[in-house]
Design brief:
Layout: E1 17-21, H1 25-33, E2 40-45, E3 49-51, H2 56-60, E4 70-72, H3 73-76, E5 83-87, E6 90-94, E7 99-102, E8 105-108, E9 111-114, H4 126-131, H5 138-141
Parallel strand pairs: 1-2, 1-9, 2-5
Antiparallel strand pairs: 3-4, 6-7, 7-8
């Protein structure tokens, strides 16, 4: 790390640091399993909310309002000790230096968990891929 490099501020801790990228189902579930365990958990996501993706179709068809399927990340883990959330987008990872670089700074880690979601699988059906709309975000469903 260079002297002029911007670091993401997190509280100092002697605990092993687990950085989780992604506040989707995988990231949230993983962090819940670490509750009351001896780790400092840092969650990074580009949004400050978790969205319940299975109900995006309800938003698309006006069955639900967008705020009905989004939940603030900080509220999900309110009261969980040794937990820090930062809004950031990952730009690169240096596994040798155990450092993650984001659009807002860098952060060291002992363990790294990537839970950034998935791509839609069209099973080789090119016509379906050309003529369908994926629902991966609130924006897609509006």
């Amino acid at each position: 790390m260079s002297e002029d490099e911007v670091k993401i501020w997190v509280p100092d801790s002697d605990l092993p640091r687990v950085v989780v990228v992604g506040a989707g189902f995988a990231g949230i579930s993983f962090i819940q399993k670490l509750k009351n365990k001896p780790f400092q958990v840092i969650l990074l996501d580009k949004n400050n909310y978790h969205q319940f993706q299975p109900l995006l179709y309800q938003v698309a068809t006006s069955g639900l309002e967008p705020d009905s399927i989004t939940f603030p990340v900080r509220k999900l883990f309110k009261g969980q000790r040794n937990f820090v959330f930062r809004v950031a987008e990952v730009e690169r990872i240096d596994t040798n230096a155990k450092r993650i670089y984001t659009n807002v700074g860098s952060l060291g880690f002992d363990y790294l968990v990537l839970g950034t979601g998935s791509d839609t699988n069209f099973y080789g059906l090119e016509a379906v891929q050309r003529n369908s709309i994926g629902l991966k975000s609130i924006t897609d469903s509006l």
